[in-house]
Write a structure and sequence with these properties.
The structure is a homodimer.
Chain A: H1 22-32, H2 37-47, H3 57-72, E1 76-98, E2 102-103, E3 128-129, E4 134-142, H4 148-156, E5 165-169, H5 177-184, E6 189-193, H6 196-199, E7 221-222, E8 260-263, H7 265-274, E9 300-321, E10 326-336, H8 344-366, E11 373-380, H9 388-396, H10 398-404, E12 405-410, E13 416-420, H11 428-435, H12 447-458, H13 462-470, H14 485-491, E14 496-498, E15 500-504, H15 517-523, H16 529-547, H17 555-589, H18 591-594, H19 617-643, H20 651-656, E16 679-681, E17 689-691, H21 693-700, H22 704-736
Parallel strand pairs in A: 3-7, 4-5, 5-6, 6-8, 10-11, 10-12, 12-14
Antiparallel strand pairs in A: 1-2, 1-9, 4-9, 9-11, 13-15, 16-17
Helix pairs in contact in A: 1-8, 1-16, 2-8, 8-16, 9-14, 11-16, 12-13, 17-19, 17-21, 19-22, 21-22
Chain lengths: 737, 737
């Protein structure tokens, strides 16, 4: 569901590495020769031929076809069904009542060039899932991206959205943040549109002549409050099985509290052009040929939304390739199969890679390959509405997963360019190793090398270039949310990674009817060579994890990264302090009065309480302890490897639970579903990760009394992790003797 | 002629100051009470009532009216006439021949709201003065702002403009740079347009509903190669008097070498929309609702220009208020009176302030005020075409000016907001002192205080805020070019300053028919209170210079500033070196090949010779000597003041020539007219100043063998200045004994 190409990437490989038997290496190489771009193209054509959203006939058909395909290849597969709450549009109205009358079309027309764009009877209309029903008429205010800082700017401009409908543009946050923050500021409705500056003609030629969003294109998407919990709204924390205990709809906390609807820039332009009031700040202006203004006035808009609120079945297709040695150690691999409409890019471009991995394994199995560990390949349903398929499955199997899951490897949409591989930092070294064995289709460099050189080209500071040139591993980003790893990593504490290629080309068909086979095969990875690279990357990762003697987690990079986050937190606290001190001083000096233009007046900010100096010592001590234990583990591992002995019995079982030591059962403040204490989607970013979120968000949100208790809490989690690694290390040291 | 509101400002006042008798102070205060906004409004209405460009009937009429007005007020005044080469349009054609046919209208329509916009028979059509005649038909290429770095980017994209017509947008440089750089790259024609992102609807409501440029508005302007020399092209270095020796037109070096014409964004849009080829880099895109592309192809354009090349009389109106004590020490003050069309803002909003200064002085004179020094007030003609009126006058009176001119105080257009006061740094302390005595009309703070607080609000770095809070003087910017101070400062070495208010509000009527009384009185300094502030500021500066016992130059701030420039030069040389080293390294590593997108290929840069380490020691020694001499002068001055004695005979005459010691008779490399060695307009910026230009431009243009000889040359100039100050200091020390 997430638009991966917009990601800031950091990727991939290392020097020191754990030895593998030549035998394994050969199977890996054989594996990488198998994924076939031609077949991927065929799968995509089939899977994206008709709309296949949650609850659609073709969605079920696709699941059954996938099941049949997997069985045809000779692997064990089954469909697991859940029943989830799914709102779909019954009535959608956006009309301008003043100063002139205009009725938004809310329709993406069929294009002669794109054969799948005319399936009107099967298409899910453009809407935001989990908006509440509503019928509001109110003045319109333009709020830029509608993120918290935009409302601070509105306050400076003396503009309130109380009782208004806001219009926000897509971008800068996950879309669900926009109605959430709007409602917090008293708005009664929210319209989201795609400005052409973000993915329309400003970026390039529009569809069907080019890849970018035409004036009629609309981005559908979920607005469920996923930073609180994802998955079926009625069954938080438990699987939405047929007989699950369900909340009542009125008690659900993850619906929006105001109605919200996405529209095209064709529909948005008349509304925005009619706004008067302040000229929007420079950073707020898009690429429409108008003067962007904030309003309010004289635009009055009616937003009327009515949804069908149905329980619908969803179909996860689960493949199991049993491990020959450690059958209760599971390598998890997933990609969703549902789409908003035809979804050639999102998610089918990732799905076809996953399929080719399964097919390739089936070929190897027939040739005698026997993976040591069990491979679980998952084609999730209902990701688009809020990660429902993966979340319900993970919640259902939570206990077993905590015992058995080694790693979760996710993919979603795929494109051309560079490997993006955010994930748990205990996997950083591993991902780097994989990336060094994958060839980039365009340059024939390894994808690791290409990423390193891209990093060097983009680095602003000489120190950043120096690190890129000298550090054995390229840094990987941390995972926020936006795809199916969320339940595995954030709820269960299973080490996870997300893989995808992107960064070249671009487009504006995301979550529209134009995300089609025609679009993908004309403007994206047209010959599926990056689809092959993705299958090679994810499959190699899965295989290597399945085959390794000792599970290839690395705690040194994790410890170093956590130490880096700690530095960031200290700097953040300091800069907040200095910022408030400086602003208070400027208020006292009369700066804001002095620079006020009487014809464009601004409200002066208020003096704020200066934050206290904070005690970071517990985190510093915990981080030091973790660093020490990680180093001790690395040394012990090295010595143990030199012995050539097999892994001590039960040690892998302990290792696979290490990431879980970074979770706390009580979860994050006010969102207990999120248990990981290092990674979480930001409460006010949605996609964007917040690392050490309990501490970071308390500082960002200036909840000063909360900071130190959270520091203490997170520190004890880290100390627990350090102790856990120490215990494993002792076993390893004993075994090496 | 320059759009002052777009200036980055740094302004104004100090702690230590030279004492003035209470008597003087009283006259100053009385002076500041006199300028009258109502009268300024009347003057503007009269002066901007009809088009009054160089050679126009109303231009002459205005000059005569000004003369009569000055005489009516009882001051000595006369008109000095010169005869200059003035091209005016005979034929202007821009048409697109392919892929479709389109003929540019090249016409700014009359607006019912604006009574002076319909004077078609008197308006100078939209064009660029000193473009050559030409008739070219060629493919079109979009080159962004058309500055050197844009052509580097085009080279990376593999696009040549050879044999093409370029279309550049206004901004980022003085307009004359655009055809110059285009021709250097082989273009055969140049079209310049005003993109709505720069001063059109992107910024705010367009005229006549708002102040910004409508789709039909065109920016006229000179494209003479002023960084080579300004003024009448036929008489460089000498006054264009009736009998002056004139070059032949064919020998002139300051015409463009290709035809160039400005157009509106209404006329530009069809051309730009029809371009294909690469999507323009992000920073190149404007606010038209199109995908910006570079071309070439398939757009073929014809640009045909034919001018009348006439000698025309121009009329400078010169007021002389003789000094009672030092009549051969001249305080110079000027503003031009000619405009491109009606020119209410540019230049009349400044002209009316100058008029009120003269009227106020005439009132004081009648009350018995007798300035010690002579005040020369100048209303220049023909500034717009290339500073012709002021340059020819300064060249004609060069010898006398070198002996007598104390300071030149310039104004031009005026607006609302903050005082902008770039100038010679020997005047920095003086300007700060003046600014502390002027009240800002909107905030009632002093204009100094308002500027300081604005600086604090805008400062990015804590160090910058610290300096703004602690340094006695606000830093002033250095003068580049773009108004009538150029000949005084750059050619003659007379300490100069430019004064103007701006930074609030905005507009897009610059050099168009819409720069009218209607526009100004609806959208700019509508009640002329900033006109009054300007008269108070410039008049106080003139008066204070006229009255001071010892001329109030300060060399410490000058020396400190030159030392700062030296630091900049060292950093510039270092960063060029590091940049080339790093790029060469990246070429070797294969970075550019690795990041190449095969669907949007870029040409890899070539390995460059690594620049040598440069010997800055001569400049360091000279700067140290200047600092020392400046400090010694300050100490001596302090002691001398304590004696209460009058200025030693002849010392002021020596002081007034100090700035001339910063000139070198040979001028700058390849542009001998520019004699000042600290300040000059950049050869590739036009408006933008280059400080220590001989050294800075050699580094910027990577002419490594030139750098050290220029360092040596400039060092000897600075040493000469230090010696000169030392000699003056000795006299002062003797006088204090």
């Amino acid at each position: 569901m997430r638009l991966w190409r917009h990601f800031v990437f950091i990727a991939l490989l290392c020097s020191a590495s754990f030895s593998q038997t030549p035998l394994n290496r050969d199977w890996e190489k054989e594996f990488r020769a198998l994924p076939d771009p031609k077949l991927m193209r065929e799968y995509m054509q089939r899977l994206s031929a008709r709309p296949h959203h949650l609850g659609s006939p073709y969605g079920k058909d696709n699941a059954e076809w996938l099941l049949a395909k997997f069985k045809e290849w000779g692997v064990e597969a089954q469909i697991e069904t859940f029943h989830v709450l799914f709102p779909s549009p019954q009535e959608r109205v956006v009309e301008m009542l003043a100063p002139t009358k205009f009725v938004a079309k809310l329709q993406e027309p069929a294009l002669a060039e794109d054969p799948s764009s005319n399936q009107l009877s099967e298409q899910l209309p453009s809407y935001n899932a989990y908006s509440i029903d509503g019928d509001v008429t109110a003045p319109l205010v333009y709020v830029n991206y509608g993120i918290p800082s935009d409302y601070e700017e509105l306050e400076r401009l003396g503009i309130s959205v109380k009782g208004c409908i806001v219009i926000a543009r897509y971008g800068a946050s996950w879309r669900g943040i926009k109605p959430k923050v709007a409602a917090e500021h008293g708005a009664v409705g929210c319209i989201i549109y795609s400005d052409p500056i973000d993915d329309g003609y400003y970026e390039g030629e529009v569809y069907p002549k080019g890849p970018y969003r035409p004036s009629t294109g609309v981005q559908r998407g979920s607005v469920m409050d996923m930073p609180t919990y994802p998955g079926d709204p009625l069954t938080p924390g438990v699987g939405a099985t047929a007989n699950a205990k369900r909340m009542e709809r009125k008690d659900v906390k993850t619906f929006t509290t105001i109605p919200v609807l996405p529209i095209s820039y064709g529909d948005a332009q008349p509304l925005l052009a009619a706004l008067v009031g302040r000229v929007a700040p420079e950073g707020w202006r898009g690429a429409l040929p108008i003067t962007y203004r904030t309003g309010p006035g004289p635009v009055k808009v009616r937003l009327k939304l009515q949804f069908h609120w149905d329980l619908k079945p969803i179909y996860n297709v689960i493949v199991k390739i049993p491990g020959a040695v450690y059958s209760d150690e599971w390598i998890m691999r997933g990609n969703h199969h549902d789409a908003w409409v035809n979804g050639a890019e999102d998610p089918i471009s990732g799905m076809v890679a996953l399929m080719e991995e399964v097919r390739a394994f089936s070929v190897l199995l027939k040739q005698g390959w026997k993976p040591k560990r069990t491979l679980i390949y998952c084609a999730w349903d209902a990701e688009e509405q809020g990660l429902l398929g993966s979340t319900e499955w993970a919640e259902t199997h939570a206990e077993e997963l905590r015992q058995k899951a080694v790693v979760y490897i996710n993919t979603d949409g795929n494109g051309r360019g560079y490997l993006y591989s955010p994930g748990s930092h205990s996997l950083e070294k591993f991902i780097n190793n994989v990336a060094k064995d994958i060839e980039d289709p365009e340059t024939k460099l390894t994808v690791w090398k290409r990423s390193q050189l891209r990093g060097i080209a983009d680095a602003k500071a000489p120190e950043a270039r120096k690190e890129l040139r000298s550090r054995p591993d390229l840094r990987i980003g941390a995972l926020g949310s936006g795809s199916d790893y969320t339940a595995f990593l954030d709820h269960l504490g299973i080490a996870s990674m997300h893989l995808g290629y992107g960064g070249e080309g671009g487009g504006g068909i995301y979550h529209s009817v134009y995300d089609s086979f025609h679009w993908f095969t004309n403007f994206s990875d047209t010959n599926f060579v990056y689809g092959r690279a993705l299958a090679q990357t994810a499959g190699t990762a899965a295989m290597r994890f399945a085959e390794s003697d000792l599970l290839p987690y690395d705690f040194s990079n994790l410890a170093e990264t956590i130490n880096k986050y700690l530095d960031e937190l200290k700097k953040l606290a300091n800069s907040k302090r200095e910022e408030i001190l400086e602003r208070n001083k400027q208020i006292e000096e009369g700066v804001f009065a002095a620079i006020n233009d009487p014809r464009a007046p601004r409200i002066s900010p208020k003096t704020e309480e200066v934050p206290p100096y904070l005690n970071f010592a517990p985190l510093e001590n915990a981080s030091a302890a973790l660093t020490q234990s990680a180093e001790r583990y690395s040394t012990a591992l090295q010595k143990f490897r030199e012995t050539g002995k097999p892994a001590p019995l039960g040690l892998n079982k302990k290792l696979l639970q290490a990431e879980q030591k970074l979770t706390a059962n009580e979860g994050l403040p006010n969102r207990p579903w999120f248990k990981h204490q290092i990674y979480a989607p930001g409460y006010y970013t949605g996609y964007g990760v917040k690392t050490i979120p309990a501490v970071r968000e308390a500082i960002e949100q200036k909840q000063w009394p909360q900071v130190e208790p959270q520091i203490v809490r997170v520190s004890s989690v880290l100390l627990g992790m350090a102790e856990y690694i120490n215990a494993i290390t002792k076993e390893l040291e004993r075994a090496a003797q």
